[in-house]
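Protein: Protein-disulfide isomerase
Species: Paenibacillus hunanensis
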Amino acid sequence: MAKPNQKKKSNPEVKRQQQQAYKQKEQERQRKTMRNLIIGTVAVIVVVVALIVLIPNNKTEGVQTTFDYSQMPVKGDANAPVKIVEFGDFKCPVCKLFNEQIVPKIQADFVENGTVSMHFANFPFIGPDSTTAALAAESVYHQNNDAFWKYLDEIYTNQKDENTNWATPDYLVQLAENAKLGIDTTKLRQDIDNKTYADQVNAQYKKGQELNIPGTPSIFINGVQYTGDLGDYNAIKAAIEKAQAEAKNQTGSEG
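Structure follows.
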């Protein structure tokens, strides 16, 4: 795919075409990299689930980028030496699997002991209601950081087919009420309708474009894009441990 033309990215038609291109590339990537995890019943195969292998991006691999972590939801100690940023789309089925199967392991092994913090950035490219979901999530985050993560889980748990426009304001508010987030859901609805946090969502989307991420989920570990298999937790763990060692060495040299 050609590199997005940054001079035209403010044009709604160009943005629509870019989102469609990302969607087509993501669907092709998923078809090529599905790994079967077959769950059986007594005599019937029930479901095949998948996690993906990110297509290596030589332009960004090993290149350090910076993030304003203070403007993102954070899970764990904000001062942790290793910070992971996930670019996600709430309509992305692989994001759902990543957050259900990989994130809990990262949390158990690293977040809970204070050595890693996790952050989330919106990259809504699948459909118009991807942006609606992003606006809702930003609203929840600005009311309560901890509620954001509970809301993220609620959306993924109740995620529907990516080819349908299911992330409506009514549905997103209902999910927030069902999850008992302890936030003002009237304000949530107003923020969605008024696009209160559109600038923040757009800025996160543009950041992903600038980094040439191939789709969602895409993760960065201390500012370096992880280009390995997102379904291979051992590989992700090794990358985190490498970042930990580098952070420790840097701290030691500064001391």
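Remarks: The chain has a mean pLDDT of 84.
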